[in-house]
Fold these 4 entries.
Entry 1:
Amino acid sequence: MTDVEKLSLYDRLNWSHDFGLFLSQKFNTMKRFGLEGCDSFIPGMKVCIDSAVDHGATDFVVGMPHRGRLNVLTNVVRKPLEVIMAEFQGTLPSPESTDNRKYKDAGDVKYHLGTSYTRTQKKSNGDDAEVTITLMANPSHLEAINPVVMGRARAQQHSLGGTIEDRLAVVPIIVHGDAAMAGQGIVYEQIQMQSLANYTVGGTIHIVVNNQIGFTTTPNKGRSG
C-alpha cells in the first residue's frame, strides 16, 4: 500500500476505535455491543464500499447484528451523531418541537435501529458520486434480516429496470457473527437462491465478524467451523 492508503486506513481505524472508547466512557452502564477486538471491521467495510462505488454502485442495503451497529451508523452510514446520541438515551429529537418522543410501545431498542442516508463520495478517479447507504432495522433474531435485505435490494433493482447494470448498482451487504454464519440455516437458504432468476440480486457481500464466541457458547462447544 502507498503511504496515502496507509494513512487513510489508520484514520478510519482511529475513528472506529475512538467512537467505541467514547461510548464506553459516557455510557458505561448501558449495553453497547462494541467492536472491541474487531475494530478493523469499519475500515474494511469502508474500503469495500469505496471499491463498489468505483465499479458503478450507487445504493447499498446493509443488514447486521448488534455488535458494531452504532459504529457503522456513525462512521460508515454517517448518521448525525446528535441523533444517535439522542436515540441511545431513548428519545427522538424533533425539529418541530422541544418535546422529545420516547420509544414507548415501539417494541424496539437503540441497537436495533436503522436509517437511510445519502451522501456525496469521491471516486478513485476524482469524480463525485452520490451514494445512498441504508442500514435496515432488525429484531433480536438477527439473521432474520437477511431475506429482508435481499428483498429490498431486489425491489430497488427491479424499479431501476432489472438489468445486469441495475443489479450491480444496488449492492446488498450482510454482516454475520461467526457462530451465526456457521450455524443458522437461513444463511444457507439465502445463499442457495443466488442464481434463481426470480430471486437473484447479482451477488451479496457477506462480512463475517469473528467474535470467537456465539453470544454464550465458545467455538469448541458450539460448532466445528
Entry 2:
Amino acid sequence: MDWGNAYVRSKTLSQSGQVTAIEMELNLDGDFKQTKKKITWLAQPTSAYPLVDVTLLDHDYLITKKKLEEEDDVADFVSPVTEFRVEALADANVRDLKKGDIMQFERKGYFVFDGTVDRRMEFIRIPDGKAASLASKAVSGAESVQGKNAELATPVTTNMYSVPRVYGADLIPLADTKMYNVKSIYEP
C-alpha cells in the first residue's frame, strides 16, 4: 500500500471475460493520490483461507430537507431509500472479528462489524464527516452524489423550484480567506 503507482502492461482474460492475471510495472515515484484508476485485489483464496462474503451498509438522511417548516408535510420530504447495500468479498481475516469491531475497507471507509446474516458478514459505514459523505445519497436527476456508478439510483421528488443565479452568469465574488479552496456552487 502507498508505494506509488504501477502501470498495467498486460492482462489475461478467461473465456468468460474475467481477469485471471495482470502484468504490472512498479513506479515508486508515482503519486497514488493523483492516480485516477485504481485496482484493489485480495490474496488468492485457499481452502484454509477462503474469501468471505460481506455486505457493506451505508445510510442516508431520513428527510430530504434541512429544516422542516410548520406548514410542511413530513411525508413530502421522507427519503425514498435510506439504506444502501453493497455486496463484496473480504479477506479471510475478517472471520476473526467480533461484533462492534471497527474495520477499514480500502477506498471505502471505516465500518463497524454488526453481525452475520445468512452467512454474510454485515458492516455498517461509520460517517467520516467529509462533505461527500454528508450529502444526501439519494439521486437527484440522472447522477447520484456518490457518482455516476452508484449501486442504487433512486429519484427524489421535491416541492422545491429552481432559482436564477444570485450573481449573474459571469460575476462570481472571490473572498481572500485562509480556509480551504472549494469549487463555487455557481460554477457549472
Entry 3:
Amino acid sequence: MCALTWNTLDLDAGTVRVEHSLEQTKAGLRIKSPKSRHGKRTISLPANVVDIMREHRRQLLELRLATGLGRLSDDDYVFPHLPGEPWRPDALSAAFARLVRSRKLPTIRLHALRHSHASALIAAGLDVIAVSRRLGHGSPTITLNVYGHLFASKDAAAAKAIDAAMRGAPK
C-alpha cells in the first residue's frame, strides 16, 4: 500500500497492479520487488473502492493545486505522507492505530485487514487458488497453511454436494 503509485491503478478497468513494496531499513526507505514472483500481480477492485479511489484522487489533486504543487504525475504515490514521499510502514501503522483508538473500535493491527480480507473471500466460497493468487502467495499451500482452518468448515457442504450428485446420478 505504501509503494502504490498512480500508474499502477487503472480505475477504468477497476484494477491495481502490485509491482513494488516499501521496506524500512536502518538506512531509510527502499522500494523493492515483492517477496516472490507471485507477489507481482493484478488485483480487481470492487466498484465501491474504485469510486473511493476516484474521490481520493480528486481530493489529492485539489490539495496539490491549492498548495501550488501542481498536477499529479503517474509516479506520485497514491497515499503520500508528504508530497512526493511515501508513508513509512511503521508511521502508517501508528496512524492507523491512532485512528482505531479515536473511533473507539476494537484494537486491530493494520496488517490484520489482509487476514480479514482473506477470511471474507474464503467465507464467500472462493477456492484456495483464487485466494492464494489474490494474496500473492507463491503457492496455495502457503494459503492453506495460514487459512486452512477456514476451508475445513466447508466439509458439511461437501458432504451435501456429494449426496446431491449421487442422488441425481442415473441408476
Entry 4:
Amino acid sequence: MRYRALIATILAVCLGFLTACSDGADMAKSTKPLTYEEIRNTGLANNCPQLKETSRGSIALESGAEYVITSMCLQPTNYFVKEEPKNSRQEAEFVAGRVLTRLTSSLDQISGPIKTGKDGVLTFTETDGIDFQPITILLPGGEEVPFLFTIKGLVASSDAGMTSINTSTDFQGSFDVPSYRSGAFLDPKGRGVSTGYDNAVALPSAADNYAKTNVKLADTLKKAGKMSLQISKINGDSGEIAGIFESVQPSDTDLGAKEAVDVKVQGIFYGRVEKAS
C-alpha cells in the first residue's frame, strides 16, 4: 500500500509539472513574436496584418492637411479566369482556378498620397512598394494561366462628400499592368525583345501566326487593370484600415505571342493612414 501511495504521489507531481510547463509554453507562444525559424517555410510571411472584427470607427481628415497610406498589404485569396463559352449563345464567365505559385503572392509596403478634392472626393495614388508578383493559376481543365498581379500606378477615388475615412469609404480606380516577362527574356528558340534572334524560321513570313511569335512585345498596358477597395474595419486611434479588394486585369501574353484573358483576383488588404510629413 505504501508503494502504491508513493507512486501515486510521484505521478501527481510529474503530471502537475508537465501541465505547468505546457501552459507556460502556450502562454509564451501567444505573447512572444515568432522568430525567423518559426516563420520560414510556413507561408505565414505571405499573410497581411488584420484588425479585429469589432474594429469600428473613423479617421477624421483635417481641412488643408495632407495624408498618405503606408504599409499597405494586399493578400489574394481567390482567383478566377474569364473563359469564352463553348456555345455562342452564352456569355463569357469567370471560372475559379487554383494557384500554383508558392506562398509569395501578396503585395506589401505599398504607399501613396491621399488627396481631397473640392467636392470631397478622396483620391489615392500608389507610388511605391512591392507592387507586383508573378502568379500562375491552374484551371479545372488543366490549362495554366500566368499573370503579373500588380497595382502599379493605381489611381483610385471615393464617392463625393467624404470628410473622414470610415467603413462606408470605398475606392475604385485603374492601374498599369507591366509585361509578365522583361525584354531580356529569350523563348526556347532564342527570340527576345532586346536580345536574341529576330526570327526563328528559314524565311520570315508575313502571316500573323509567325509575326506574333517573331516580333516580341514587352509593353506596359496603361490603365488596363481595374480595382476596388472596400474598407470594413478601422482603428481610429492607430489609423489602421482593413477590408477586401477585387481587381480585374489581363493575363500574360507570352511577349505578344498569344491573346490575354481577364483574370479576377479577390482578397483582403491592410494599411495605415498617416499625416504626410
